[in-house]
Amino acid sequence: MSLPSSDAAIPPLPRAKAPRGRRSMFLRRPFFTVALIVAAAYVLAATFAPHVAPFDPVKQDFMAMMQGPSLVHPLGTDSYGQDILSRVIYGARYALIIGIFSVLIGAAGGLVIGLAAGLSGGWLEWALMRLIDSILALPSLILAVAFIAILGQGVDKVVVAVGLSMIGPFARTVRADVMQVRVQLFIEAAQLMSIPYLRVVWRHVLPNVIFPLAVQVTIRVSEAILVSSSLSFLGIGVTPPTPDWGLMIAEGRDFVSFAPWMSAMPGFALALLLIALSIVGDGIREEFDPKLRRGA
Amino acid sequence: MNDMTSHPVTTQDAAEPILRLEGLTVHRGAAKILDRVSLSLGRGETLALVGESGAGKSTIATALMRLLDGARVEGRAELDGAGDLLALPERRMVRLRGSRLSMIFQDAGSALNPSYTVGRQLTTTLRRTLGLSRAEARAKAVELFTSVGINDPDGRMSAFPHQLSGGMQQRVMVAIALAGNPDLLLADEPTSALDVTIQAQIVRLILAQTRARGASCIFVLHDLALASQSCDRIVVLYAGQVVESGPSREVLERSRHPYTRQLKSCVLEIGSKDLTAPEGTVPPHSEMPVGCRFATRCPRALPRCAGEAPPLVPARDDATGPLDHQFACWNPE
Amino acid sequence: MTMAQIQSAPTETRHAPAPAVFELIEVEQVFAVPKPGRGLLSRDTVGLRALDGVRLTVRQGASIALVGESGSGKSTLLRVLLGLDAPSGGRALYRGKPIREARAHGTAFARDVAMVYQDARGSLDPRMTVGQLIAEPLRHFGIVPKSGEAARVAELIDRVGLPRDAANRYPSGLSGGQVRRVAIARALASEPSVLVADEAVSGLDVSTQAQLLTLLQGLQRDMGLTLVFITHDLGVASYLCEEIAIMYLGRIVETGPTDAVLEAPAHPYSAALRAAAPQFFEPIPEPLPGEIPSPLDLPKGCRFSSRCPAARDDCRLRDPQLGALDAGRAVACLHPLTSKGAQTPEIR
């Protein structure tokens, strides 16, 4: 085929992004920036924990039990004389590892089930959705407790248990996105080209579902951390003496009247991380989700 | 500069204008989406604002209703007997909407509230603008529905908007707009969502109703042919500025501004086989030329056009009124 | 409908011997819709006749405008033409084979018949660049070797009048007119012989519309495309298409050469449509009374009789089929407005 050159007018393209009046998102969202810095500090502390922590987190010192915050132990020590600052720093490691990996398990499972439910239709969709509904009927903590009961204790078991308990909500949002993308005109246009169905799913449905899913992942990390800490607090998550925040809060519970720092310090570390992560997650969603973008 | 008052207005202008708009400028952020727009509307006159998207024609209507959000508005809009619409306190403006001026929107389907029956929406307006009792409002509503050509007006009173076709919804909109007997009607693309045969019905309806009430009407249109059929005068806008205005025949058959000609040449009449496509598009606000805004696309542009904005001048020496033919071009046809 | 009547379908006999690309013979499309006023738990449905006895022949190299108002069945007809839906009655053929079969076997049909959607932006995957969007059909149909892909994409971008750097842009960064150009380039990429366009220039400013129309006309002329153009604008139809088919309530009520039909419409509905189109300084004529009736509640006899200004008594009794008028024209009316050489229309 020869394509004769165009004699039609060539209109100039509008600018890709309006350069004026659109400052960097870090300037426009100061809370987001602060939260991002806080979250980054946690990640750095967790990564370089051996270099940052002043003491070995599991080294017991019976000469320094239940000391209040001091220069040597800025956050005090616990009932075994372990340095709370060091334990909080190492605790960030476990919190983030459990949070991230369990969310990845949940997202992967949710993607598979959500895609299957959204694309199949008929009895399979019905069965999958009733399965998801019944999972959603239970709070993720209760589910995680149930899975721990089956799997047993330990960091790896907690990751799996929390991950499995999060498949339900992920599957629900993936299915909603699939249903929305499936009826878009560009899907029909691709089918009109006789592109095989699975390739249409791979090339056009999946990319349009993955992105909102990635945003969901950033938001749900904090939920996963909360659930895992709750498991440890209940004494069925990770086992002592692992420096886990939930565990530390539980250990300090009995001494709260005369050594409040034992529970308060890890509790504060947990709360700060959760708040920072949810602000970061919301910021990313608002910035990149076209449905929420203001003035667009 | 292109302020109309700089031309002496003869006192023997037959009709005192019902609306006199002077130097209407609207800023949104850094962009000037309307730039010193001046126009007059005679009593009982129909006027068409025409232009392409981004020309600011709808913005004029919305600014007059004071329904513009997040924009800075300058200028005066003198409505006969009510003062400057742009400066009135909101409390007074609320009372004017519906009773002195009202608006017919492009998309009746979304302008009507989906959770109330159309009868209730009309009687609410009637009771608010005319202070009628419930029973009086209902009787008047049925009468209005009949006059806008709704069959079975009694039955349709209890219909919800989604139960009506697009044409019927637009008839309801017209009835609501007419409810308070306004003397100025603003119709913003009232038919662009409708089929052509329904379009003819609605335009005829609006014209007949305004004529019967002696009201004036501003149509916002993109169809030049429809404007020539329905309006006494035409104002052509380009990128937020008036480029030509005057009686419809003068503007369209003796166009002086190259843009008016170009716009007219793009209208495909049935049977026409020639079409010369104009080049380019309206420049974005960030790249708007300082001189004539049309200069970048104008086939007749002179070096002067890029740097100096042309004022609106009368097309004929003996014509001096603001209702006469005017254009803004350094090198007119 | 018997075969004899099908053979006498009017547009077939008078035309030049160019082979037919599409042939629609008494095509019907009935959808089951909830019965109006059924109870909450009721499953009652009634048949909605979206297409009712459509006869249409599209010959190789022809340009035909399908004109009708909302509710006329244009979109349903389009889906049948593209093989997205099977008609519930009649035969819909593509080069002599049922369209659904042609679509189901291989990619030849998909490659030969390209589509430009009204909602061009919606028809383009927002996560793909313009270059990727145009390359997709090239790769899918194996039009050019991988090495020549970029060059062909650039060629297509140039042909539809987009700037070179458009290849790396996303549809969301383009204007309405430019997005339609992308959709046209994508349609042309598979080197089709038939281009189906659904309201491809509506909703645009007149100058953008003019730019696209000159582009489409140039493409049709240069590449010998067969063009099926769905529009509501008679001016666009008369500029771009040599033939016109006017639809009303699921049936084609008049077909023929565009100029002849628009100059002297034979069907009162065509005449009303013609009169309602805005004309400079003509007074707005008396419009048709009422609105298009519901296809669930068709008028007795001729479907246009309830709004027809020239309806007579027999119009409410007999349903006219599309019958030959003269010079390649056909009309479905018992009392056509131009009676020159009119034959007795068939009666169902």
Describe the model.
The complex is a heterotrimer of chains A (296), B (333) and C (348). Chain A has 296 residues and is mainly α. Chain A has one domain: MetI-like fold, CATH 1.10.3720. Helices cover 67% and strands 0% of the residues of chain A. Chain B has 333 residues and is an alpha/beta fold. In chain B, 32% of the residues lie in helices and 21% in strands. In chain B, a hairpin with a 3-residue loop joins strand 4 and strand 5. Chain C is an alpha/beta fold. Chain C has a domain of 135 residues: Rossmann fold (3-Layer(aba) Sandwich), CATH 3.40.50. Chain C is 30% helix and 22% strand. In chain C, helix 9 links the parallel strand 7 and strand 8. Chain C is globular. The N terminus and C terminus of chain C are likely disordered.
Please specify the SSE layout and strand pairing.
The complex is a heterotrimer of chains A (296), B (333) and C (348).
Chain A: H1 25-28, H2 30-47, H3 49-52, H4 84-120, H5 122-136, H6 140-151, H7 155-165, H8 167-182, H9 185-192, H10 197-233, H11 245-252, H12 261-288
Helix pairs in contact in A: 2-4, 2-12, 4-5, 4-7, 4-8, 4-10, 4-12, 5-8, 6-7, 6-10, 7-10, 8-10, 9-10, 10-11, 10-12, 11-12
Chain B: E1 17-28, E2 31-42, E3 46-50, H1 57-64, E4 72-79, E5 83-84, H2 90-96, E6 101-104, H3 108-111, H4 118-130, H5 134-147, H6 153-156, H7 166-178, E7 184-188, H8 196-213, E8 216-221, H9 224-230, E9 233-238, E10 241-247, H10 248-253, H11 258-265, H12 303-307, E11 313-314, E12 326-327
Parallel strand pairs in B: 3-8, 3-9, 6-7, 7-8
Antiparallel strand pairs in B: 1-2, 1-4, 4-5, 9-10, 10-12, 11-12
Chain C: H1 3-7, H2 10-14, E1 20-34, E2 45-59, E3 63-67, H3 74-81, E4 89-94, E5 97-98, H4 99-104, H5 108-112, E6 113-116, H6 130-140, H7 149-159, H8 176-189, E7 194-198, H9 206-223, E8 226-231, H10 234-240, E9 243-248, E10 251-257, H11 258-263, H12 268-276, E11 323-324, E12 330-331
Parallel strand pairs in C: 3-8, 3-9, 6-7, 7-8
Antiparallel strand pairs in C: 1-2, 1-4, 4-5, 9-10, 10-12, 11-12
Helix pairs in contact in C: 6-7, 6-8, 7-8
Domain ABC transporter (chain B): 19-264
Protein name (chain B): Peptide/nickel transport system ATP-binding protein
Organism (chain B): Salipiger thiooxidans
